[in-house]
């Protein structure tokens, strides 16, 4: 993990539904690109961290979103650093060819959110953010490149939500209300 002077970092999750198993010959070009693209990410300006499966160089063996779904979870110093890597590096070749290897998603398959610098998001946290984006659309809590929010906006949103949650939890509940338990 690289060090950073930023107070917040940008977390990113994307999921992709495989057309074929990774060991299928039709997936070979994608599999061959994994190491070079991951190595490029690891040395890209603004890169902080990426999820890898223990004992491997990538996360393609992890299947928390379904047996045919691979996940990519990364953290970047800024949105610009992630954008540059995604669209101005060798990663773009993978993006251009993604329909050869992955099904078209009909709902959001990528989500961005701000985390405190030094925080490494869990897969569960990332999948929850994706679910939030799918259910409620973009917000300072879960957004996309096309509908982005700044770290300041995300922090202000969190501050606005916390007092409301605290007030709700402190309200007296009627006796016998099973939902209040």
Automatic annotation (TrEMBL):
Domain DUF3291, chain residue ranges per copy: 10-147
Residue ranges crossing the lipid bilayer per the database entry: none
A Pfam family assignment: DUF3291
Region of interest: Disordered: 160-181
Protein name: DUF3291 domain-containing protein
